[in-house]
Amino acid sequence: MHFDDGQIPEEYKQYTGRKLVFIGLTFCALVLSLLVSVSLGAADISLSEVARTMLGLSDSQRFEAIIWNIRLPQALAAIVAGAALAISGAVMQSILRNPLGSPFTLGISNAAAFGAAVSVMLQGNLARSIGIGSGTGIWSPYLTTAAAFVASMVAAVVIIMISRTRGATPEVMVLSGIAMGSLFTAGTMFLQFFADDVELASMVYWTFGDTARADWGELGIATALTVLISVYFFSSAWNYNAIDTGDETARSLGVPVNRIRIVGMLAASLLTAVIVSYLGIIGFVGLVVPHMVRRIIGADHRFLLPACLMVGGLLLLLSDTAARLVISPQVVPVSILTAFLGAPVFIYLIIRGYRH
């Protein structure tokens, strides 16, 4: 078949143009949703007042306190967390070549819950041993966050070590993640069985993903890490495209498949561990968003990864806003809404994979 000289470039422009338009529109929707999210709540604030306050032009100290101390960090935390979990899920699904791959399904979140439970139990026992009671169960949230992070990274490292002993095949890594998730869940249940009422309440509360927990310092760390790791993922987009065609094909193109797979898993796990340790368990975002985006713009990682960043941030921001308003003034943890959204999709993927 013969093509005119300008035909293929024009088709390629249209191919990329549609994807770039989608990413641009999603970014605009994200900015608008941020302003709307900050304006909604127990105290309604107009969009113009939100914009004036964020630009430093507002004269209302009350609005400044509400926006800068409460709503804006929570909304930005939702965006960063959603973006980080979504891009991590997209990379995991690619390098594992498994549609069920995500930080939640590979047991990293379960490991974080176990680490937090250990911290709560140890701090409660220490408090009782020095005669001050168990208190709230968490008298140092920083220790709980650190313990959750360490446990998450231990799970990721163990999965990678297992994969290296058997070869870094997708099946080995997925099965290792499932086994680790079950193990850490059993450990958490064991600790909950022996915990007192206050410690048990603290353990359960920590598992509720809540974007309101992050302060500006934690948000800065999470944002910086998300940007750095996302840049690495973007630079490896061609390698992920090659791996999608099969390991043998990717190796024939010069892609170091095992190294890309292990480094990608480690980077995605690190990013997930930071988000989960700060905000608690927010499931299914990393599973659902990549599939949603693939259906719209395809599986080319040059466009899939930045689109997942935008859609993940937008989805979690909208979910967090809905969680604040659905039974106002009570605030529902955002993880409950994401679970309601993700669980049916997860079941659909299992059934679809079984039929195929």
List its traits:
14 helices, single chain, 356 residues, 78% helix, mainly alpha, globular
| Main beta sheet | none
Helix count equals 14
User: What are the low-pLDDT stretches, counting only 5+ consecutive residues below 50?
Assistant: none
- Principal-axes shape call: globular
Which bin fits the share of residues in helices? over 70%
Distance N terminus to C terminus? 34 Å
Topology diagram in text:
Elements: H1 7-39, H2 47-54, H3 61-96, H4 108-129, H5 141-166, H6 170-194, H7 197-207, H8 216-235, H9 237-244, H10 247-252, H11 257-279, H12 285-297, H13 301-325, H14 334-355
Helix pairs in contact: 1-2, 1-3, 1-13, 2-3, 3-8, 3-11, 3-12, 3-13, 4-5, 4-6, 4-7, 4-11, 5-6, 5-11, 8-11, 12-13, 13-14
Structure overview:
- By secondary structure, this protein is mainly α.
- It has a single domain, classed as ABC transporter involved in vitamin B12 uptake, BtuC.
- The chain has 14 helices and no strands.
- α5 packs antiparallel against α6 and α5 packs antiparallel against α11.
- The longest helix has 36 residues.
- The model has no long low-confidence stretch (mean pLDDT 83).
